[in-house]
Amino acid sequence: MTHDLVAALRPLLTAEAGAEAHATGTEPADLEQAVWLRLLERLEAAGPPPDPQVWLRRAVRAEARRSRRRARVERPYETEPADGAADGPEQAALTAARHRALREAVRRLPGRCPRLLEALLSPKDLTYREIAGELGISQGSLGPERSRCLGCLRRLLSAEVAGR
Question: HEC profile for the chain?
Fold first, then answer.
């Protein structure tokens, strides 16, 4: 009985939800799911409706109204809320893996690039003057050298990503 009712109402519900969803700002599938839930609740509480097509149309419109009211009341956050999941072990493992991959790619760079980028990535937060002194180059050539090294790193990483 229930299976026959669902099979008979499916095309009508798809059409009705598709027609109402645009005005509510929801997805038609979400509206359909809400109406199926109402039908199951109805079947459990009072049995099948006497006129299923009429009941279905009314249920779709009622869910659409409910969705519009909810959309008027709900407001998006001004900024993204803090995500507590970002501190989890999966996030820490992914971050560590990205850092390892970056450092491995930096080590494969040509010339002075590995030493320069390691100095730039250093947790010591070295100044350009300190980096230039450490590498034995002039402070004025540090910017162009950094740009060339970052270009090499970008090409190296994009080739690896494309190769996967």
Answer: CHHHHHHHHHHHHHHHHHHHHHHHCCCHHHHHHHHHHHHHHHHHHHCCCCCHHHHHHHHHHHHHHHHHHHHHHCCCCCCCCCCHHHHCHHHHHHHHHHHHHHHHHHHCCCCCHHHHHHHHHCCCCCCHHHHHHHHCCCHHHHHHHHHHHHHHHHHHHHHHHHHC
